[in-house]
Amino acid sequence: MSNSTAVQKKLVQINELLIERFGVPERNAKTPDALTTLIGTILSQNTNDNNSYRAFQALRKSYHNWTEANTAKLSEIEKLIKPAGLTKQKAKAIKTVLHYAIEEKKSSTLSALKHMSSDDILSELTSFDGVGVKTASCVLLFSLDRNVCPVDTHVHRTINRIGVVSGSMPEKTFYALYPILPDGIAHSFHTNLIKLGRSICTPSNPDCPQCPLKKVCKYKDKTKTSGKKNSKERILLLDNLY
After folding, report:
1. Distance from first CA to last CA of the chain, Å, rounded?
2. Active-site annotation holder among 9, 134, 172, 214
3. CB burial string 174-188: b at 16+ within 10 A, e below
4. Distances (CA, A) of 35 to 102, 135, 173, 236
5. With b meaning 16 or more CB within 10 Å and e meaning fewer, what string describes 52-61?
6. Dist. CA 43–CA 86, nearest whole Å
7. Which has the closest alpha carbon to 121: 130, 133, 129?
């Protein structure tokens, strides 16, 4: 058995164990278009989902559609997205991708991305300031249903502790997983790792005795006692865009 095959088998095992604990994550009843996910993910950067959701809803309620939002002044966008923080940086990125979609691609949904390869989409979207690999990969997963696992801080921390990959930064972890992720597991794998990272595999003092992956995890600093209360589950923005 090749090393990549062994890793893939472990990824399948991890996904099954996470589903046993957290269940199969629900998805949007309506798949958000690529531009909607792109804007929602920009808002989610460096803040929690509750704040980014408030900012996203403020945008949606203020404009009939993204074509109308494209005509808004930068200062107006900044004011609306204030709950998400980093308003100048995020507003500029949003205006950039709105222009890209409406003016260059002539599409308020970025439907043209459906016909591009995942590699090309990653390359094109990350060419814009404010759009990193995590943001682009969320478009691939949540709007285009590609089998791609976005890597945020929770996914990065948990999957490295488990010992599946060894990435010094989230982007390196993403590219380690990208070519080997078993077919069909990306959404549940990504979402449940976030739940694990928020409630059990926390940055400090992880509650290892309560972890569904304790038998397969190679984390050298496993704690031996439990007693922590799991944190209250928060909304997952990209599964609540509609």
Report:
1. 44
2. 134
3. bebbbeebeeebbbb
4. 10, 11, 25, 18
5. bbebbebbbe
6. 9
7. 133
Task: Determine whether 134 is an active site residue.
Answer: yes
Cα(40)–Cα(35) distance, integer angstroms: 8
- Please give the angle made by the CA atoms of 14, 17 and 23, to the nearest 5 degrees: 120
∠ CA 150-168-185, nearest 5°, is 30
Q: What is the pLDDT of residues 17-46, one digit of tens each?
A: 999 999 999 988 889 999 999 999 999 999
> Which DSSP category does 152 fall into?
-
CA-wise closest residue to 81 among 131, 72, 12, 217: 72
Query: In what helix (H) or strand (E) does residue 137 lie, and over which residues does it extend?
Result: helix 133-142
**pTM of the full structure:** 0.91
